Amino acid sequence: MSYKSELYQQVILDHNKNPRNYRKIEDATSSCLGHNPLCGDRITVYLKLDADNKISDISFSGDGCAISKASASLMTTFVKGKSIDDVKVIFDEFHKMIIGELDTGKTGHHLGKLTIFEGVREYPARTKCASLAWHTLKCSLEKKGETTME
Amino acid sequence: MGLRWFLFASDKTALNEKMTKTLFNMEKIRADFPMLSVKVRGKPYIYLDNAATTHKPLSVIEGIRRFDSEEYATVRRGAYLLGEKATSMFESVRERVARFINAENPSEIVFTSGTTQSINLVAYSFGRKFIGSGDEVIISHIEHHANILPWQILCSEKDAKLKVIPVADNGELIMEEYEKLLSEKTKIVAVTHASNVLGTIPPVREIVGLAKKVGAKTLIDGAQAAPHIKVDVKGLGCDFYVFSGHKMYGPTGVGVLYGRREVLETMPPYITGGEMIVTVTMEKSTYAKPPMRFEAGTPPVSQVIGLGYAIDYINSIGMDRIQAHEHELLEYATATLGKIPGLTIIGNAREKAALISFTLKNAHPHDVITILDEYGIAVRGGHHCAQPVMQRFGVPATTRASFSFYNKKEEIDALVEGLKKVIVFFS
Ligand SMILES: Cc1ncc(COP(=O)(O)O)c(C=O)c1O
Question: Which residues from A are below 8 Å from B370, CB to CB?
Answer without folding.
Answer: 7, 123, 125-126
